[in-house]
């Protein structure tokens, strides 16, 4: 799955400058923001910040209203070891390039999740000795970037390794326990039946460990899919798998289910257009699904020539589109309408000053004004010791808050 993701342009990550950064989960030295709503982390499209001609995150935010990005991918070092890197080459501990992207997004009111794994490369679940050491490696990433969300992308070849999956699921559970409020998604391959044998084994491993993430997402592409109908069919079937595995009812299963699509031409030559994304989005929202994302923002722009010669690209979609068309579906899922213009702020009215306070012993005649209970009142006729507002038909006329 997602064959273009981890294999294109890894050399771009090699030249990162060294700079240590100490951080906390709630806020780090780079200025981590207050967490967004889970809906935003659930809608975050994938972005490779170092490879595949990374687009400018600020430009996408301005054009679409997008606030959350799923940065990809954390892997074990290519030379071996149990420490986190970007793409197997750039150590997280000394990273400044991705940190700069994170800072830009947060400065504009957004935030990021980080995705670990992906297709290809050596995963930390394979390289680390157990769940605890795997979790410790991922905790470095959470701490470095002050993360409020993380994605476990468990697919080939790692998900064929039961020991590695045991480490990954165990690490996810530890991180969930040690970082209260952390949004955790688990993404795996999709098939027409929902997910395949290895995906089902992963779910059984989660069940055996008593681990429940915010969602289990499938990727219904690269498996003989043809448009939205085949994808929604897979999502329906995956819902049944979640029900039977965890003993959930249908609604609970949908509340823990997610969709991770591929925009435009997939690795195997399937095509998914804007209309397909709209159909799946309608399905996801009507079934109250937890997540709607896609691979990738690097591809969310038109190729030149438009059809890219019938080849799949890591930097464009190979379908006719305007830049960031597909990102707008994530924005819709998050419940925000893409901006069209900046409205003129409505002036805040100047508060009305309060009149002299009402007195129970004073005599008031028609037209006299007083204040009581943060409202101004006008006497309709002669009155004494009658509380303003005590009766709808009383002597006082409410003139509004003061």
Note the topology:
Layout: H1 3-7, H2 38-42, E1 46-47, H3 57-64, E2 68-75, E3 85-86, E4 90-91, H4 97-107, E5 111-117, H5 124-127, H6 131-145, E6 149-153, H7 162-178, E7 183-189, H8 197-209, E8 215-219, H9 228-246, H10 250-255, E9 257-262, E10 264-265, E11 271-272, H11 274-286, E12 291-295, H12 327-333, E13 363-364, E14 369-372, E15 375-379, E16 383-384, E17 396-401
Parallel strand pairs: 1-2, 2-5, 5-6, 6-7, 7-8, 8-9, 9-12
Antiparallel strand pairs: 2-3, 3-4, 10-11, 13-16, 14-15, 15-17
Helix pairs in contact: 6-7, 7-8, 8-9, 9-11
What's the rounded overall pLDDT mean? 88
Gyration radius, to the nearest Å? 27 Å
Global structural class: alpha/beta
* N-to-C SSE string, H for helix and E for strand: HHEHEEEHEHHEHEHEHHEEEHEHEEEEE
Number of helical elements? 12
Q: What is the quaternary state of this protein?
A: single chain
Largest sheet: 10 strands, mixed
Separation, N- and C-terminal Cα atoms:
63 Å
**Uncertain segments:** 5-31, 341-346
Strand content: 15-25%
Described by the principal axes of the CA atoms, the overall outline is elongated
Count of strand segments: 17
- Helix fraction by DSSP (H/I, runs of at least 4): 25-40%
Describe this structure in words.
The structure is a single chain. This protein is of the alpha/beta class and 402 residues long. It has 12 helices and 17 strands. It has helices at 3-7, 38-42, 57-64, 97-107, 124-127, 131-145, 162-178, 197-209, 228-246, 250-255, 274-286, 327-333; strands at residues 46-47, 68-75, 85-86, 90-91, 111-117, 149-153, 183-189, 215-219, 257-262, 264-265, 271-272, 291-295, 363-364, 369-372, 375-379, 383-384, 396-401. α7 links the parallel β6 and β7. The protein is elongated. Mean pLDDT is 88; it is low at 5-31 and 341-346.
